[in-house]
User: What shape does this take?
Amino acid sequence: MNAVRLLLTPRILTFRNGAVADAQRYRIRAALFGSLGLVFWAGIFAVFYRVLRYFRGAEGFGDILAAKLLSMVLVTFFAILVFSSIITSLSKLYLSRDLILVHALPVSPARIFLSRWIESTADSSWMVIVFSLPVFLSYGIVYSAGPGFYATAGLSLLSMCLIASGVSALAVLIAAVVLPAGRLRTVFLFLAVIITLGLVLAFRLMRPERLVNPEQFQTVMAYLKSMETPGSPLLPTTWMMDAMMASLKGAWRESLFHQALSWSCASSFVFVATGLAGVLYFPGFSRAQTAAERLFPTRWLRPGRRPLLLRFLPPPVRALAFKETRSFFRDQTAWPQLFMIAALIAVYLYNFSVLPLDKTPIRTVYLQNLFSFLNMGLASFVLIAIASRFVFPAVSMEAEAFWILRAAPVSIRTFLWVKFFLYYVPLVILAEILIVVSNLLLDVTPFMMGLSTSTVFAMVPGVVALAVGLGAAYPDFKSENPAQAVTSFGGLLFMISSAGFIGAVIILEAGPVYQVFMKGLHGGSLSVLQWTWLVVSFAVSLVLCILAVILPMRMGERHLRDLE
Assistant: This one.
C-alpha cells in the first residue's frame, strides 16, 4: 500500500497547495459553494421531512410507503453512481494525460489501477454522498432513530458507492481489451447511457404515482400487497433498503445480515477487479492509446457539402460557423448524452400524462393552469442543464488552438455571437416543444398556452447568452476534458445566475397572471391598478431578458480581449 499511497500523494498535494496558493479566492469559492450546497441540502431535507411526516401519520400503510420511497431513492442514487463511475473510471484509467509518466514508474499495473480506482471512486461518489445525507437524516428524525440507524445508513451508502465503482471498473477493464481500441471512449459512453436509461426506466415502471392513487386497486388489501412487494433480492439497493428499514425497527440481526450482503458484494468486486488488473490493465491501456475512430460518419459535413443556411453568411463568419458545427458533430462523446437527454425528456413528458388531476379535491382547471405556469420554470431548468453541458464549455473546447481564432480575420464579438446563434436555434426549438407538448397534455387554456410559449421564447436567449458569456469569462483552455468546465467556479456562477434569472421572471409574472386567470375563471375585468401591475411586471421581465443577453456577452468579450 506504500506505492498506492505514493501515487495518491500528487492528488492530495494539489488540493492543499491550490488552497494555500490563492487563499482568498479559495475562501470565496468555498463560501459560495458551501452556501449553495446548504440551500439545496436544506431544501432536500424539508421536502423529505414533510413527506415522511405525512406518511408516518397514515396508520397501517405509512411505513410501507416510506419503505417504497426509500427504495426509489436508492435506485436513483445507484443509477447516478453507475453512470458517473463508468465515465470517471474510463477517464482516470485510460485517458488521463499523466498516465504515460505513471506507467513508466517502477510500479506494478495492479497498484496503478488501485490508486486510480480510489480516485475515481471519490470523484464519482462525493456529491451523491453529500446530497443523500438529508434524506437519511429526515428518516432518522421522523422515526426517532438512534445512532445505530445513522451508522447503518452511512455504511450502506459507502458500500453502494463501492459496488457501483467496482462494477464500473471491472466492466472497463474487460471491455478495454475486447472492444476496438479506437472506439473505446464512445462505446463506453454508450454503455453508461444504456445502463442509466435502464435504471431510469426501471424507476419509471415502479409507477410512483400509485403512492397517491390507491383507487386503481379493487381493495385496500390489494393496494397494500402491491406496495409491500419487495425488490429483487439480487439488487444491492434491496439489501441496503432492508438494512436501513430493519435498523429503524430495531431488528439489528436482520440489519446486520443485509449489511453483510452489501459489504461482501463490494469486497468481492474490489478483489476481483484488482486481481484482473494485474493481467488486463496494461494491455487495455496500450490499446487505448490508438487514434479514436468515429462511430458515426459525418460525410454531409465535408467542406464541399456545407449546410445550406450557412451559405448566406459572409465568408469569415461562414467558415467559423461551419467549423463550430463540424466540431460538435465530430465530438462522439456528445452523441450518447444527446440520446440520454432525449430519453429523459420523454420520461419528463410522460409524467404529465399520468398526473391524477381528476382525483384531487381541487378544481381540475385550476391545477392544469397552475402546473402549466410552474412548467415554465421546470422546462427552463431542463434548458439550463443542457446549456451547462453543451453551451458553457463551447469556448473552452477551443483549447490550446484558441490562438488560431485570434489570428483569424474574425473579431471576438463575432466569434461569441456565432456560438450564441448556433446553440440558440436548437435550444429554443427544444424548449418550445417541451412547453407546447406538456401544455397539450395538461389541456390548458389558450391564455396559459400563449403566455408560457412567449415567456420561454424570451428566456431562452438569456440562458444561452449567460452560458456563452460566462463560459468566455471563465474559460479553461488547458483542461483534459473541457466538458468538465461546468464543475468549475464559472460553471457554478452560470447555474446560479441562470436559476436566479428564471426565478425572477417567474416571480414577476406570477402575481399579474394569477389575477388575470382568476378574473377569467370567475368573470369580471381588471382594475386600473391591476392593469398597471400587469404592464409594469411584464415590462420589467422583458428588460431582464434583454439584459441577460447583453451583459454576459459583453463580459465574455471583454475578458477574452484581456487574455491578449
